[in-house]
Amino acid sequence: MTKTSTCIYHFLVLSWYTFLNYYISQEGKDEVKPKIFANGARWKYMTLLNLLKSKTAGFGIYQPGSFRKLLQTIFYGVTCLDDVLKRIKGRKDIKFLTAFRDLLFTTLAFPVSTFVFLAFWILFLYNRDLIYPKVLDTVIPVWLNHAMHTLIFPITLAEVVLGPHSYPSKKTGLTLLTAASITYISRILWLYFETGTWVYPVFAKLSPVGLAAFFSLSHIFIASIYLLGEKLNHWKWGDMRQPQKKRK
């Protein structure tokens, strides 16, 4: 039975991400800010993949389709539903939902959130103009910046501590993560070819070979985070890998 305190925590986190989504959607209606963000650059940032319906302002299009109802909001929505149904029906009757929750967290929510936190602050501390130019401080509140780039990590890490998550085989997990990475990179390139503007300033400073190296190293980094998440889960909860189907 899921603890009441854990259920309340999941609901509060879902409410937090829902509020952020609403706040950002209202900010996107501001007619002054699009003049500051050429081609709606603010709405193309990867961190908004951790919210919901991240619009590319000025073009009226959305972030990559599979992330339209974005990562953290979906995950905590599914988690809250899982919490409620476990209390009503019991654990055995909702195995599919629990498995989907675990797959979502292990292969996407944890790796992406941790990657966003680490990559953003490493680049920010090295040279903020590469990732978050100072002009953004005039239009994005400090608390919102930390909501998108800082709080996502402790919230995600808390999820590791609060309950176990069954990991798929490494082949399945890394394949899904690779597919998500390719989808996002394809979206970045498509936006550049459509608008002539890179979603992050750092990309404009790289040659084609540099971009290929950057994307490759980023994928290696996020794959390493996936493996770290599996190790943390094993350390806290023991072996929680999903059982393999026996071949006939």
Automatic annotation (TrEMBL):
Record-level Gene Ontology MF annotations = hydrolase activity
Q: Which UniProt keywords apply?
A: Membrane, Signal, Transmembrane, Transmembrane helix
Biological-process GO terms, alphabetical: cell migration involved in sprouting angiogenesis; cellular response to oxidised low-density lipoprotein particle stimulus; cellular response to steroid hormone stimulus; long-chain fatty acid catabolic process; negative regulation of blood coagulation; negative regulation of extracellular matrix constituent secretion; negative regulation of leukocyte cell-cell adhesion; negative regulation of lymphocyte migration
- Catalysis: reaction(s): 13-(9Z-octadecenoyloxy)-octadecanoate + H2O = 13-hydroxy-octadecanoate + (9Z)-octadecenoate + H(+); 13-(9Z-hexadecenoyloxy)-octadecanoate + H2O = 13-hydroxy-octadecanoate + (9Z)-hexadecenoate + H(+); 9-hexadecanoyloxy-octadecanoate + H2O = 9-hydroxy-octadecanoate + hexadecanoate + H(+); 9-(9Z-hexadecenoyloxy)-octadecanoate + H2O = (9Z)-hexadecenoate + 9-hydroxy-octadecanoate + H(+)
Q: Name one GO cellular component term.
A: endomembrane system
Write out the transmembrane intervals: 103-123, 143-162, 174-193, 205-228
Q: Which residues form a coiled coil?
A: none
Q: Span of the secretion signal?
A: 1-20
InterPro entries per UniProt: ADTRP_AIG1
Q: Which Pfam families match?
A: Far-17a_AIG1
Q: How does it sit in the membrane?
A: Multi-pass membrane protein
Q: Where in the cell is it found?
A: Endomembrane system
Similarity comment: Belongs to the AIG1 family.
Q: What is this protein called?
A: Androgen dependent TFPI regulating protein
Taxonomy of the source species: Eukaryota, Metazoa, Chordata, Craniata, Vertebrata
> Gene that codes for this?
ADTRP
